[in-house]
Amino acid sequence: MTAQLAPAAAPHTAPVPRSRRARRRPPQVRLLFLVPAVVFLGLFSFFPLVQLLRMSVSKVTAATLNGTWDFVGLDNFTAGFSSGQSTEALYRTGVFVLVVTILGMVGGLAAAIALRTTGRWSGFLLALMVFVWALPPVVNGSVWKFLLGDSGLFNTLLLTSGLRDTPLPFLYDQYWALMSVAFVNAFVVIPFNALVFRAALMNISPETFEAAALDGASKWQEIRHIMLPSVRPTTLVLLVLTIVYGFRSFDFIYVMTYGGPGTATNTLPFLGYLQAFVRYDFGLGSATSVVAVIGVLVLAAVYARSIRREESES
Amino acid sequence: MKQTAGPATTAIKALLTLMYGVPILWIVLTSFKSSADVFGLQSSFAFRPVTTAYVEAFDGALLTALRQSLLISTGTTALTLLVAVPAAYGLARTTGRISTIGLSLLIVLQMMPQTATVIPMFQIFGNWKLLDSTLGVIIADTALLIPFATLLLRPFFRAVPPQLEEAASIDGASILRAFFSIVLPVARNGVFTVGTLVFLLSWGEFLYAVNFFLAPGSYPLSALLAQQVSAFGINWPGLMALAVLTSIPILIVFTGTYRLLRDGLTVGAVK
């Protein structure tokens, strides 16, 4: 399960009336409540990031991991890019994120529109989808590795129906492998996106649809002119969240292909992991990870801007 | 309002039901097969169910892994809530530069790739003697989930009317007292929702567990599963039995909290 949430404004159900004047104490005293988080995250989140940065400009191997590190400047970075590994990984990450995002967003919206109807089937289906989303990624990854295998369900169906003579190499072909893992990533994010889109659709007042029906609007026109405009703010936030989700994804790659075949599913974050924990070149792995972190910082800036715009629009 | 389900809607729903139903069905079916029946169309549904995979899976190692999973998940949930609940309340009730910076940092941390943080943490934990210990994994998971938990909890605290606290302070209650006896009870649904999510997420976490435990003997279930699925010559019925056993606690938690999850998940992301 992977979840990311936005710190949007307070839920619409409970408007918070402001009455600053009536407050007895200066509200900023409550900043003290942040102290445990500051201490904990300082030790176990920010300090590791500083170490990551230090390792990325040092020569660190398994032998010197807990010893002294030689400063090598940007050597790790240039090594990553000049060997072409980082560049290829960057390109693969782009393709991967694009596929996950398009499938995840379109699938999520389609599912939300279909599940907007009340009824037993919709209720059951929504619960089933959220359950699959809540399952550990290793479980989802395992079953899809099984279903997409040479003798798995999909190839069995393809072969017995006569559509193919040989099994499709879903997980061990250069191009199929990346697409297959991206598909499974999208498969898992669709329930979450559907849930969020659905909540936005439920906020549209029934009168709007009644008025549209009186005017003889078709189903497609309802989607085009009523539903799509009203989910636009949600779409922006979800878009960034889905991009980030695809970008930092590693669990399905780990379980289904472990970066293979060859380097076919080495996205940038996974490449950094392999360099550090399989090739024991912690310096190189850190440098690759720093590049990934910079990518995240850019996405975070875009995200913060879209949130601010959304909050100011309402 | 009458919602008529058109043919397109019905088609999408049918497709989704297949897409999400078949994998679940297949895990369960395969776990009851003998190795000979795993592949092939004829034996997809028509097979003699056997519990071999479960009998073989159920050994001391599985019970150890189950205990480890429970320990890590409950430990992480408790520790995360302990830190994130006050932090979320603090961020919900303050304005100004500090809380804006705090929020931005949490967003950035939440987006960090776990594959990037595992590298320096492995080194740091080696120095601090936290490698190969359950506490180390709990701490790492907690650091991973605090940003998520805090950001999701904050709107729940913002929804608690400040007047309630003002009334309490007029009656002479301290900020701390008002927090525990008024704010926390009002926001309990949010705390419960977030606690459930943190439990589910830490139950599935395996990257820290695989790297920080130096021997598979102390792996939790998710790490055991990750290790077996990337091995050569996978024993599929055994693996699926392990997957089912890993998922049963999730099913229990999910059944008890589905309504809360369904409504609570959308609070943070949608207005």
From TrEMBL, chain A:
Residues 1-22 are annotated as: Disordered. It is a multi-pass membrane protein. The chain crosses the membrane at residues 29-50, 89-114, 121-139, 175-197, 236-257, 277-304. GO terms for cellular component: plasma membrane. It holds the Pfam family BPD_transp_1. Residues 1-17 have a biased composition (Low complexity). It is found in: Cell membrane. GO terms for biological process: transmembrane transport. The keyword Transmembrane helix applies. The keyword Transmembrane applies. Residues 90-303 form the ABC transmembrane type-1 domain. Keywords: Cell membrane, Membrane, Transmembrane, Transmembrane helix, Transport. Belongs to the binding-protein-dependent transport system permease family. This is Sugar ABC transporter permease. The lineage of its organism: Bacteria, Bacillati, Actinomycetota, Actinomycetes, Micrococcales.
UniProtKB/TrEMBL annotation, chain B:
It holds the Pfam family BPD_transp_1. The chain crosses the membrane at residues 12-32, 70-91, 103-125, 137-157, 238-261. One of its GO terms (cellular component) is plasma membrane. PROSITE patterns: ABC_TM1. It is found in: Cell membrane. It is a multi-pass membrane protein. It comes from the Bacteria. Keywords: Cell membrane, Membrane, Transmembrane, Transmembrane helix, Transport. It comes from Pengzhenrongella frigida. Its main location: membrane. Residues 66-257 form the ABC transmembrane type-1 domain. Belongs to the binding-protein-dependent transport system permease family. The keyword Transmembrane helix applies. The keyword Glycoprotein does not apply. One of its GO terms (biological process) is transmembrane transport. Gene3D superfamilies: MetI-like. CDD domains: TM_PBP2. This is Carbohydrate ABC transporter permease.
